Amino acid sequence: MKLVATSFATTALVALVLSHSPLAADAAPEMRGPDPVELVAAEQDRTARVARALWDYAEVGYLETRSTGLLQQELAAEGFRIEPGIAGIPTAFVAEWGEGGPVIAILAEMDALPGINQSDSPVRDPLEGKHAGHACGHNLFGAGSLTAAIAVKKWLEETGTAGRIRLYGTPAEEGGSGKVYMTRSGLFNDVDIAIHWHGDDENSAAARTSLANRSAKFRFSGISAHAAGAPERGRSALDGVEAMNMMANMLHEHMPQDARMHYVITSGGNAPNVVPDFAEVFYYVRAPQPEGVEAIWERLENAARGGAMGTGTEVDWEVIHGNNPLLVNETLARVMDAKLREVGGVTYTAEESAWAEKVHESLGEAALPLESAGEVQPYGKSLGYGSTDVGDVSWATPTVGVRTATWVPGTSAHSWQAVAASGHSIGVKGAQVAAKAMTLMAVELFTDESLREAARAEFDAARGGDYEYRSLLGDRDPPLDYRK
After folding, report:
1. Which Gene3D superfamilies has this protein been placed in (predicted)?
2. How far is CA 53 from the centre of its chain?
């Protein structure tokens, strides 16, 4: 698969996109029915309540039992039809409202990250006994998407517009590739357009791609022995891991500039005086194209074999997850950019500014002006160095996303500062901005057939006529126990 750099092939496509620009004099027909932004604003208490509950739960991938239950409960109360346990994943679900017309999907994530936690304090404050935290803001992702889906449902109902709004509850984005199994099961085949969003330290609807990636747990087996009394009898599984890591680190010198590889040793033995007979290392490989991932991956597998051979151990590995890169759709991205600018960014109260200033002190040189949370970044196209299973969805149906300032400007994802803001009112405000932009986008898609057609035309051209979907995790079943 090759990620195609898209462009507008015809004057008609250019004209259509420009017609949705905020600079166009006749940008859009007068909106029927209630104001979508006001529908979202009316749900602010729900957004805050659900976001906080998910933040408190902090459930990791495929174990989001309470989180998915809460989302489904809220949707069922609003009249959505719920299909739980889809694609062989107990915590995944689809909720739908409406009849006929186009199908617009909104994605909702819910999983937390293991090994990091924090209170909602602006200074480092780990919570004793808590082993995970929403360091990527998926509690906000789930709550904001829920709000948008309910707002769109109410707009469809009050205007009598034909169409179906779907919320996809998507577990285990963090290394579990929940959406890949959902895509592989054909759950997006009848979707006209998919919409997603993510927390960030800035507001942007730029057309940003992502890196393809694959991960695996490499497991070495050796022979245990007394490390002092009978060292010659031992074959250290940890030696195998360390030999592999040494070769992998040398491989870093010979990788493309925009590729990434990182690892953690998840098991290395329990006592220094026992030669460990088992050790495990968990690797990620990323590159802009699937072919790049696979080329590096072949060399990584050879490093594992070499490590085992040189240390007299054995090795096998289990692919845990794999994501295709995001297929950008600029027809949709430019419209989303216009919707985000219509909504605007995040404005802090005096109390929130004081809280954010304290977080700023911990960011050092990474800190950005607080007022940038109220700005929308310029539109453009770029390569993002993260990876997401939304990438696979984007190869199944035209997909568009938005990022909003849920964290203090300068905050990195996967940090304690991100956990804190994701549990704070600043995070909720960012989720509301995202919900408003997504709701406006969905309403536009329901009412503008030419926009849907143009997005599909760009999508078809980018994939190519001979495209066949292939996941980077093969035919394995969902790794429901990968976080246990």
Report:
1. 3.30.70.360, Zn peptidases
2. 20
* Residue 444 domain boundaries: 11-209+325-463
Whether the pLDDT of residue 7 is over 60: the answer is: no
Beta-carbon neighbour count of residue 258 at 10 Å? 13
Residue 282 maps to which CATH number? 3.30.70.360
Do residue 171 and residue 32 come from a single domain? yes
Asked if 147 and 40 touch (Cβ cutoff 8 Å), the reply is yes
Q: In terms of domains, do 304 and 218 share one?
A: yes
Q: On the CB side of 433, how many CA atoms lie within 13 Å of its CA?
A: 35
Q: Measured on CA atoms in the order 297, 303, 304, 305, is the torsion positive or negative?
A: positive
Work out how many domains the chain is built from and give that number: 2
Higher pLDDT, 30 or 437: 437
Please state, in angstroms and rounded to a whole number, the distance separating the CA atoms of residues 113 and 136.
Answer: 7
Residue 219 near residue 266 (C-beta atoms within 8 A): no
Q: Tell me the C-alpha distance between 132 and 109, whole Å.
A: 16
- In angstroms, the CA 137 to CA 426 distance is 12
Q: What CATH code is carried by the domain that includes residue 138? A: 3.40.630.10
318, 329: one domain: no
Bridge partners of 400, per DSSP, are 195
Report the candidate in 371, 442, 441 with the shortest Cα–Cα distance to residue 405.
371
Query: With 0-12 CB in 10 A as exposed, 13-18 as middle and 19+ as buried, what is 456?
Result: middle
Taking all residues of the chain, what is their mean pLDDT, rounded to a whole number? 93
What token pair was written down for 133?
């935290």
Q: For residues 176 and 145, state if they share a domain.
A: yes
Q: Is residue 469 situated within a structural domain?
A: no
Are residue 371 and residue 419 in the same domain, yes or no?
yes
- Global pTM reads 0.91
Among candidate residues 409, 425, 411, 424, the one with its CA nearest the CA of residue 373: 409
Instruction: Name the phi and psi angles at 356, rounded to 5.
Output: -65, -35
Between 20 and 54, whose confidence is greater? 54
| Six-digit token string for 449 | 């057939």
Q: Chain centroid to CA 392: how far?
A: 11
Asked whether residue 423 falls in the same domain as residue 283, the answer is no
**Per-residue pLDDT tens over the stretch 390-439:** 999 999 999 999 999 999 999 999 999 999 999 999 999 999 999 999 99
- Is the domain of 162 the same as that of 61? yes
Can you read off the two tokens belonging to residue 280?
């495990």
Q: Is residue 258 within 8 Å of residue 246, measured between CB atoms?
A: no
Q: Closest Cα partner for 331 from 171, 426, 459?
A: 459
Count of Cβ atoms closer than 10 Å to residue 250 Cβ: 10
